[in-house]
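thought: fold this chain, then report.
action: predict
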Amino acid sequence: MLILDKIDTPCDSIRIAVDIGGTFTDVALIAPDGVVATYKLLSTPADYAEAVIDGVNALMQRENVPSESVEQVLHGCTVATNAILEQKGAKTALITTRGFRDILELRRTRVPRLYEPLYQKPPSLVPRRLRFEVAERMDANGHVVTPLDPDDLQRTIQRIRSADVEAVAVCLLFSYVTPVHERRVKEIFAEICPDKPVSISYDVLPKWKEHERSSTTIADAYIRPLVSGHLDSLKTRFAGQGVNKRIAVIKSNGGEMTLEAAAKAPIQLTLSGPTGGVVGAKQIARLAGVDHLVTLDMGGTSTDVSTVVDGRESFTTSFEIEFGLPIQIPMIDIRTMGAGGGSLAWIDKGGMLRVGPESAGAAPGPACYNQGGTQATVTDANLVLGRINPENFLGGQMALDTEAAEAAISKVAAEIDKSVEETALGIIQIANNNMIGALRSVLTERGLDPRDFTLLAFGGAGPVHISDLMPLANISSGIVPNHPGQFSAFGFTMTDARIDVERTTPMTSKAFRRDHANDVMADLVRESTAALSEQDYTGTIEIHRSLEMRYFGQNHELEVPIDFERFEDETIASIWQSFHEAHQARYNFDIPRETIELISIKVTAISAAERLALPELAETTVEPEPIATRSVVFDDGAHDSKVYDRAQLLSGHRLQGPAVIEEPASVTIIRPGLNVRVDKYGNMLLGEIADAPAS
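observation:
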């Protein structure tokens, strides 16, 4: 990929991607020949759509791209996540089976803080007074025990109407087996209150475990009005700019969906933004010939980490936005922590220096932004240590105030009796250790050896910290991709349309109902392909199937892929063996004679997007020329470090730290002795991978 100031020749089939972060909004534009242009601006928390439109317009004008040339806009949305985290969603009611009103209080028996006797679980998104019971009951096999009482339901709806709620969630007992009662509730509610959006659990999460299913369905209803409003605003504003072709939103599973589909399933956007970086990482892994990557996306507010193993991202359906608030939708397995450039430095009651998780955000931002912030942040510390050029932040669009940064850090330094430089270095070291904890959570805690992985760092702040993190994490190779500050947005341009569906279908290896399993799997294939067709994804569709299984009596399932279309005698025998092997690989033991439970059948339908070829850089064998030299403070003290302009680096260029490599939306810091090589696509390879022969 090339970093260009201009795409000189207007052309059709331009893709634009936008990633909204807590501090910055990133925009990437990619032409059919693979040429990429990027733009970064501060986010607008009061109205996120404002920064989206402003960023897209600014980039299109800079690159001389007419609106009619834009084939697609891809949008990573943080509105859903923020609404839940900040408890700023819609006033929501819950309709459930009589006797199950308190499932949200019962939750699970796990206690997250064993040594905090006064710990209280976070409040539910729906208070008890807004939970309503109706007379109905299904059994575990989907048979009606108590018919739905329409009169009782009508009275319940009137009570909900009087409560002036904005959205309704419906979660009835065993509806994941037979949804007839849930669907009837939705129909009657639409007749009486057509203006109230209704989310039913069968559409959101047709899966067993009442607490998780209820929580996920409630979250979907809770964010539905807000997300719909945001998406409607985007569509209207883009249309006003003449951009009215396909506008898509990135899902938590790394796929894309239309605005209309997203408005009907807003819970699918819970981890929309961070997924782009993982999707882009798969491409980088392929280009660099790397089997295992661990990704680190450090922005202004948070850091997201994930893995790409054997060229594939890791998925999960077990996620909690906060403890006690599970969101069980298919998503790329990303761990998020409050460690970003805007993370605040503070002194705890014991007199110890702490960093994060609270962030200065986009407003007021770090002290050096000169926008009202007065507290010291990680960005302020990096600036004081010489790691950031105050005159080249955002390519010179925004000047940083070094004196303001020093003043903010001096307040912290005075409390711990340290110099400004010592305190700034301490802030960086603590932030690094926080991120090491996140990296361990996706590596060593899962039995993965960090020595087998390459660290891919992006986000505006990721490249600043990569060379510090590599030895701390016991990772010998690193990669800084092109456009690291907008890498997640770039990853959006490589997303496929993806539909994940599943259905709880409990049976055992000793009582396997083959015909029923075949019927369920066929239904899921039809449902997923129909969903893609409804969104006008009409290309070739790939179907992937998997099963969630466990040993009888276990509480957690393992997902096992299958490569057949129907359950037959031979294939049925193979799935039990596959589970034993998967259990051995994950937990280092198996129980060959134990009964196995099949819990759920899962189907993924993928409509692959066109993959664009990426341009290659010119080759050279000469050493790169630095543009300046400045003092940079590392753990062992200050070093005179050569400064390079990344736009001038060519394929084959090699350099050694201490060094600083600047670009418009980020800066890469290279510690003393660390080697760097630029590959033919412009990616910077660090450490062992840089020393390996170029392919």
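thought: worth noting. The first strand starts at residue 14 and ends at 20.
final: tokens above.
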